[in-house]
Design goal:
Elements lengths: L1 H56 L5 H8 L4 H14 L4 H13 L4 H13 L2 H12 L1 H11 L2 H14 L3
Protein name: Permease
Keywords: Membrane, Transmembrane, Transmembrane helix
Organism: Thiohalospira halophila DSM 15071
Length: about 170
């Protein structure tokens, strides 16, 4: 499964690189590759450190409360709590994903973790207050938020269904 995803990503990257080469020439291609390398370099340092920090922090998180509130048996309530927690969780992926690893190790259910990640991705109150509302205005921000509110819950329900099917 991972090999298919890996091959798919590199196939798409290869197609995009080919199209960029044909469209803009070598100068734009080199500029895009340099920008991509800058972003990758940033991740190559931070992601392994975040994963190591998460693995060291995992034993410190009490399994009882996590499994009570976010465990597989917490059901719809756990999905709702995870959705809300994801929405108020500040920070980027270097914060959110290691936290998900820690919560999974402490007994959180897969459906609840999907709801948490989706809530973090689409609700993100910190991003809404810092970027969206000032740049887009409150009317558009509130419409987007209203349309996005059910998405973490729906994603958690769908993930629970996939897990129940044996996924």
């Amino acid at each position: 499964m991972i090999a298919i995803a890996f091959i798919s990503v590199f196939t798409v990257l290869g197609i995009l690189a080919f199209l960029a080469q044909r469209r803009g020439g070598a100068a734009q291609h080199r500029e895009a590759a340099a920008a991509g390398w800058q972003q990758l370099r940033w991740l190559l340092v931070r992601v392994p450190l975040a994963v190591v920090a998460a693995s060291l922090a995992a034993p410190l998180v009490p399994a009882g409360p996590v499994s009570d509130w976010l465990g597989p048996e917490s059901g719809l309530t756990g999905i709702a709590i995870a959705s809300l927690f994801g929405g108020i969780l500040p920070g980027g992926p270097v914060v959110a994903f290691p936290l998900v690893i820690v919560l999974e190790g402490a007994g959180a259910g897969r459906a609840q973790l999907v709801a948490l990640i989706t809530g973090w991705s689409v609700l993100a109150v910190h991003r809404l207050l810092i970027f969206e509302a000032p740049l887009l205005g409150w009317p558009l921000t509130l419409r987007r938020l209203a349309a996005s509110l059910p998405l973490p819950f729906i994603a958690g329900l769908l993930a629970g269904w996939v897990v129940a099917l044996g996924g």
